[in-house]
Amino acid sequence: MIVPSSSFKIYLAMQPVDFRKGIDGLVNYVSENFDLDPFSGAFFVFRSKGRDKIKIVMWDGTGLVLIYKRIEGKGFYWPKLVDGTLTLTKAQFEALFEGIDWRNVTTPRYLKPQRPPSNPTGASHPRGQRQTHE
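User: That's the sequence. What structure does it adopt?
Assistant: Structure tokens below.
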């Protein structure tokens, strides 16, 4: 399985597509229906009408990649059928691919670490400086 890094965009097509479409048909579908660049390196996820199959198309920099999965049981969880796409996080995508209800998966927001404030009293010595004794 090719797993996207958290820097990749992952788009979920909200409507089922004709699963007779191959890689070129899905790339054309992205271009014509979503106004997105299928060669951007993003992952585009499509479902079948029966909810038991997904196809994923992405450009890896050298060629197009098509991933096809059929799941047993109830099928993949999908949002309400409306036009357009939905952007998924990496965690949501991984849950979807495993057949887990990804709609309840949230990714915590992490803040960029801040530099600790400098100590105006000089009570402690910064790392890397040696303390001299008289």
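The longest strand covers residues 53-59.
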